[in-house]
Amino acid sequence: MMSSVTLVGAGPGDPELLTLKAVRAIECADVVLIDDLVNPEILSFAPSTARVIQVGKRGGCASTPQEFIERLMIAEARAGHRVVRLKGGDPYMFGRGGEERASLRAHGIEVDVVPGISSGLAAPSSIGIPLTHRSWSQGVTFVTGHGKDEASEPEWKALAQSGLTLVIYMGVARVDAIQAGLLAGGAAADTPVAVVQSATRDNQRQLLTTLGQLPQALRDSGLGSPSIIVVGDVVRCADDWQTLIAPMRVSA
């Protein structure tokens, strides 16, 4: 007997931002494979009989190998279990959902994907930043702070010249290189920047600064991962931009 796997986007953290389809999938799960960045409160929707397996991945920490996660999903589905792979944000936004779906389908397993609100959308909006604005930006680019290898590193110079809002995931550890690349590409040192940590959760904190001051301001703030970095003039729309930017400080 073979069941199915559902890749579920758990959103940025606030359980109220789950979709109805996500809640229904979790409620029907026999097995839940959960990432580190998922708010544990979301597990309250799972049946008491469901097995919860932690398969977290976090930069700089011990992580569950991707190959093991895929083998585990295949084994549980082949055992006839309804499997939910619960991911922070959206499964297809830096969540390896594409890799997992391909692997499952290659083994003949039915896969459903439930989109979720990505932190790249939720973090800016939580402090009043629109990603596009007729006066500031006609588009947005979502980019990881680091590639799989050196050959796949983002082209920061090209991104700087695009004139688009940049939403950077997993960029805290490489903020110096990101700043250097953007400045080298022609981005102005006074370009507004926002950093939002733990978006939509009770412990959310944020920093408003400029590109020229970003690395030092980030170190001084004490903000770390998981954080979203937003670069562009749309950051001028942030709540209290005028009062926070001078002197630059962190708000909660």
Question: What is the distance, rounded to the nearest whole angstrom, between the alpha carbons of the first and last residues?
Answer: 50 Å
CATH-assigned homologous superfamily of the largest domain:
Tetrapyrrole methylase, C-terminal domain
Amount of helix? 25-40%
Strand order of the largest sheet: 6-7-10-8-9-11
Radius of gyration of CA atoms, rounded to a whole number: 19 Å
Topology:
Layout lengths: L3 E6 L10 H8 L3 E4 L16 E4 L11 H13 L4 E5 L9 H10 L3 E5 L4 H8 L13 E5 L11 H7 L2 E5 L5 H10 L7 E6 L7 E6 L3 H8 L5 E5 L9 H4 L5 E2 L1
Parallel strand pairs: 1-4, 1-5, 2-3, 2-4, 6-7
Antiparallel strand pairs: 7-10, 8-9, 8-10, 9-11
Would you give an account of this structure?
The protein is an alpha/beta fold and 252 residues long. The chain has two domains: 4-114, Tetrapyrrole methylase, N-terminal domain (Cobalt-precorrin-4 Transmethylase, domain 1), CATH 3.40.1010.10; 119-248, 2-Layer Sandwich (Methyltransferase, Cobalt-precorrin-4 Transmethylase, Domain 2), CATH 3.30.950.10. Helix content is 27%, strand content 21%. It contains eight helices and eleven strands. The chain has helices at residues 20-27, 66-78, 97-106, 119-126, 156-162, 175-184, 214-221, 241-244; strands at 4-9, 31-34, 51-54, 83-87, 110-114, 140-144, 165-169, 192-197, 205-210, 227-231, 250-251. The chain has a six-stranded mixed β-sheet, sandwiched between helices. The longest helix has 13 residues, at 66-78. It is elongated, with a radius of gyration of 19 Å. The N and C termini lie far apart (50 Å).
